[in-house]
Amino acid sequence: MKEKLLNYWHNLQPREQKILLAGGVFLGLFFLYLLIDAGAGRSLMMSQQLDKEEKLLSWMKPVVAQITMTRNQDMGEAVTAQNILPQVEFSLEEAGLSGQITALDLVSGNQVRISFDGVVYEALVKWLYAFSRRGVVVHEFMATKTDEEGVVEASILLGAK
């Protein structure tokens, strides 16, 4: 095989040899450029990806800590049909929402209706989430937007499981 190529090369005119040699050098340099450029582009892309992942990690660390803390907190006494009203009252006071209550009524043996006026929606939802982990079911939830941003009028019907 090598002999055939050498024989072919020697049978070429000097002009043809120069053209093939120049083309080979050009192709070699082109492939070298592609190899270097692809590596640099890949390095830049990996660097950008790393930056994104580091930002995500820095955001996730406090969130994981908050979730872990929430899970480990004492969930309090389980809510039953017998203690639902005092548990709701106590929980609302702890959450700082008792000042916005306009009505708190025992509807049936195991259901309580709460009406709020001017309550911060986010605080209300956080309280509902935490309280629902204690064995409470939200049967009805209605919130009406007010003129103040993030503040609603709400009516909630809760029941013990």
Topology:
Layout (H helix, E strand, L loop, with lengths): L1 H9 L3 H59 L11 H12 L5 E8 L2 E10 H12 L3 E10 L5 E10 L1
Antiparallel strand pairs: 1-2, 2-4, 3-4
Detailed description of the structure:
By secondary structure, this protein is of the alpha+beta class. The chain has four helices and four strands. The protein has a four-stranded antiparallel beta sheet with strand order 1-2-4-3. β1 and β2 (111-120) form a beta hairpin. The longest helix is centred in the N-terminal third of the chain and has 59 residues, at 14-72. It is rod-shaped, with a radius of gyration of 36 Å.
Task: Throw out a few tags for this protein.
161 residues, alpha+beta, 4 helices
Tell me briefly what this model is.
The protein is α+β, with helices and mostly antiparallel strands. It has helices at residues 2-10, 14-72, 84-95, 121-132, and strands at 101-108, 111-120, 136-145, 151-160.
